[in-house]
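Suppose you are handed only these lines of text.
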Amino acid sequence: MAAQMSNFQLLVTLTQAKESAWMGLTGRISEAMLELTVPDWRMRSVYVCGPNGFMQHVRETLEGMGFPMEQYQEESFGGAPVLRMTKQSVAEPLEKTVTGNDPVAVAIAFKDSNHQVSTDGSLSILEVAEQEGIAIRSACRMGACGACKVKTCGTKVRYEVTPAALSENDRADGHILACVAYPIEAVEVHI
Ligand code: FES
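From them, the structure of the protein bound to FE2/S2 (inorganic) cluster can be written out as follows.
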């Protein structure tokens, strides 16, 4: 899709094109895509905003292309660093012996996706979902917009910042803001 004003052109690329009728760009931003759509990319300024993985991909792509990175800006909402996790099927119970200084393992079950992982609780539920390739909406990543609101089975989570976009009714219904919610016990999330 392309929308054009006098000095502005919008291009959209779908990374998960489910509509076979889609005739526009598909896939992640790449050198070939930029050469095709913005042939004077070396002269441009680049502003990137989005999930950490997306921004890292764009940054590395541009660096690999020899883009002048002093013309590159990205916005960060303070996402946590990546850490390792162990995957398990939903059918398997979470078993881990915690000793000494071991981090406490916490299971997150993404019920609608039939997927479960074990984490040490240092990543938000949104970040865990993104790392596991589970589709989840997000925007501000700081508890302010409500885009990442998801329903749980009612388990407790820890919030590092006030979940401003979560009402009392939302809480009573078992909703959380995944971007600022950290698991403190086994969680079942409906995504
Ligand atoms: S992404 Fe805005 S509240 Fe979570």
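What can we learn from it? The chain has a mean pLDDT of 81. Residues 42 and 67 are 6 Å apart (CA to CA).
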